[in-house]
Amino acid sequence: MGGGTEVLQNLNPRLFVKCVDRAVTEDDWNENVTDEFDSREVFDLIRHINDPEHPLTLEELNVVDVNRITVDNEKNKIDILYTPTIPHCSLATLIGLTIKVQLLRNIPPRFKIQVKITPGTHVSEAAINKQMADKERVSAAMENIDLIQTINKSLIEVENHYK
Amino acid sequence: MTDSSSFAEKLIEGEDILSLTNEAAEGIIKSKLAFPDVLTSLEPFLTSVDVVQRSNGIFFLADVLQQLPADFLNADEVDVVSEFFIKKLAEHFSITPHVLKGLSYIVGMENFPDSQVLNLLGNLQCNVTVQTLTQASRLHYYEILQNLLLSKETVLKSKQNDFVYAIITGMDSEGDPRNLMFLYQLIPEAYSKFPLEHLAEEAFSVLECYFPIDFTPKGDGGITRDGLARGLENCFVSSTEFGPFVFPMILEKLESTLKVAQVDSLKLLIKGFEIWNIKDINPHTSDLWKAFKLTLLQAGDSELVDLALNALTSLLRRYSSSALSAHESATLDQLLQYVTDNTHRFLSDPTLTLFLPSIKVLNGVARSSRFCCEYVVKTVVPQLLALAENKKGHDAVLSALSPILSSCIHYNLWNSKETQQILSSVPTSLITLMKDSNSQNGCFLCLKETVSILDVETRNNLYSGVLSFLSTNDPLPEDSYSTFIITLANTHPEEVKQAVLNCISISDTETGITKKKKLRTFCWCCNVPSLTSFSSDKILHFISIPRCSSEAVDCLKDFVVKEPSSDILRNLGTQCNMIQRLHEFCLSSADSSANHVLNNSSYVSISTTIEVLMRHLTAEDQRITCANCLLLYAMGSAGEQVPPIQIVLLKGLLLPLRKDVQLNNRCMIVRVLLQTALNSDDPLCQNSSAVLLSSLVNKCLDDNALRDILTSIETEIDNGLKGENPIESIALLSWIVKSLILRSHVLASVWLKRLISLLAHPTVSMNAANGFKIILADSAELSSVNFCSERLLFKQWVFQWIFDDQLAALFNSDDENSKKAAALAITYVVIAVPTSLVVSQISKLIRVFVLCFDSNNFEVIAATLEVLSSLLSTGEKAFEEYIDTFIPRFLSCTSYSNMIVRMNALDCIYYYGKFQETRLIPYKNKVVQELLKALDDPKRLVRQKAARARSRWFLVGTADDR
After folding, report:
1. A29: which chain B residues are within 8 Å (Cβ-Cβ)?
2. Which residue of A162, B91, B315, B686 could cross-link B948, Cys pair, CB 3.0 to 4.6 Å?
3. Superfamily designation of domain A28-161
4. Tell me: the pLDDT tens digits for B494-510?
């Protein structure tokens, strides 16, 4: 378990249906059409991240949802809201950080990425949002070997879901 | 006897007696030596005061006994020898191993006297400490016990405790796997024949210390951990007297975090529940359920979950099939209560993680016995039905109910007073729920189980329900509906025919979905023997109606390709005459005067259907069908182009012909095919002709006829290359080469050289290179399914032939284009063969790959990258050396103008990221940095590959165990 907890905080979480893989259209193979970034593309990058507590993905637990991602190609901005499975989940920061790391690695640097907790879904929402928005703290976290290894463990499965 | 005396002399002369054992044994068997005389000759050794001499004497005797047949010595001789050996047990410790060896053979002899059995047993216990012996001697000790058990069971019964005790003391602290394997066969046999009584606990403790077995096999000794574990398991279940001791041990091991401990414990329980007494099991049921519950309901390892469920089922089955006291009966009730109490709370909502695991447990319980099934029906079925009705769309609920209903049918609960009331409402509820599109899959699963118990009224409602389902635009749950309709039609064929199939019609306004549902229903009903003819007639009828013909053709094709048994297909081909009727329909509808003309893809589907049906006919049926159908074709007049449809159909008809089916008009067919393969404007027609020609070449049994065919093909190809059809000629040539290689024909290499020479052709060199793709690709058309000869490892043959003989020839041209064509050809060969073969030629290949990267043709680069990515995906270590060569080239390809090249290059970079980290670390920063550009690629598909590659390279150098 990522958080190092011995007892599961949420033994029987609710499961959600996974969305089908994005269909490849003719335009996708057309070199002359430029594909803009959209919320589905960002969602595909983070949906298969493993929950640190369960052998389930963030999508299956509805922690992330395509409708809670907004992408603005003009202003180079990506906003993501994620929902912890329970309001007092101590792993919420870790999950947020994992999402952020995955996006920092795989989204072009021209985008400003904001990862926040869905309003009203966590008791320490404000504190966590502040942590996630603090560049210095995120960078420091990414240099912490133990933490980055925990994050890498959650991310390692993601590559198996690429087509 | 001269021989006896000369043998005695040899012994006395002081020759090395151990070298004489074979001579002595052979002499005794051939009656040249008398056994008593040999004994007499040995006397100086056996009675010597020198321990070594005595030891040699006994060793000699034991070795001789080993070589004598079991029935050779008479009763007196065996008696004397056994008496002697038993006395020698009290001898010097260095002699004991030889004595045990001798005894193990004597006890196995037919004439071993009963009178010596107890004497031997007593002496073994008094004089032998097994733990001080070597492995071989311990094995002899166990062999003595086994031989006694096999032949002297009655005598042993008089002192049964002594025998059991001999086993217990003998095996205590045995550690050699070979001896343990022997013991694990001896013990179950011994303990099942001899009561353990007061020795039970001791017998158990010497076994307990091995559980669970921990063993890593060395070499090829044939002993595995699993073999030892199953052996030990058999020991524990060999006696009911182990019951009181075994449960504390198992419960302790079930708590272990070691998977092997849990697996072995559960497997032991599954076997043991059938053996151990209920009175011993009874005090532990509550603890056992607690242990099972942890495994079953905490989404763990699927192997453990299955074993725990099996163990629970086995426990319930034992209780249900045994006569129980009031107390034990209450325990069973209590156990079932535990199960329902612990699963009940997870059944309230099918979206909860533990809903399915809970249902799995309840299914297991229902399966275990009639009593348990009744219990589950009473406590769970009403809840599930209510859940399905209230939360419509929760297909999981109905899918969960289906196996429980299956158990109800199995235990005939529909007629049981206890459950009848609950179950009687189920079919009606299911028929009502069928209207809800999100519940249909589950409904069909459940209805399939209940088909056999439905009364007439319910069946009529069901038929109406099915008809209205077929008329709605709800999606078709293929798997569940097909098994349901096939089961229903098998159970009530006449009713289904009258009430469902006869009532189906397709109107002009129907949507694609309803058409498909209706047509598929007919197709699936073809599986029911009594409905095959009726249903196939209906399908052909719908094919002939313009508004649904293409859907009907597709449904029929899908059905014959993946569904039925060969009997059904044969029936469709012969009795239903489907092949000829499809031909008649197509060849008449293709005529401009007919009502409607199908599109090309429908003709291809019909051709595929014909192909599958033909494949399942016998040679004689194929010959008759073929002769009848060929009459319908208009291929007579020379010079005239044959319509493409006819070629497509002809492919379906002739491709699956068996080798021994002779074609009367083969020459004419070859001429027509050759004509269309080279001159037709229709690519489908061209390809079909080329494939069919290559199939005829592959299957032609008469070599002279084959050479005639090849000569005419060669002439036409040469003309085509010089004339207007060089590309078509190369495609045909490639197919013929493939066909010849597959049948291992002597001309294969000659024709392949012809194709290789075209790699230097000024205009079509790249097409010639593409020909290699055709040759090396797996082709269903030229496979054994269609009765073609298929040379084993033909790809490896091509690879080896090219690399051994042709590589220099390929690159001797100065022309850059031909070099690149050759490189592309090799790339296609490489992609098709196993990595191990490629690695053997890796140094030669690197040159080819580098040459390909220098090409300005995107096709060449894309193909090279594809080959490399497939080779790199295997993680073959040989590529580690070439990381310097490849990584910079891959990185530069990530900004190539063609997106396929970019994607393939990113795949290669990703696979390299899985190689040994020490090799990768110097490149990590460069790769991660360069891939930033690819993350912002204009194409999303490329960005996805870039993200995968970059994520992988970020993990380089961060592994825990680096």
Report:
1. 899, 941
2. A162
3. Fe-S cluster assembly (FSCA) (3.30.300.130)
4. 999 999 898 888 888 88
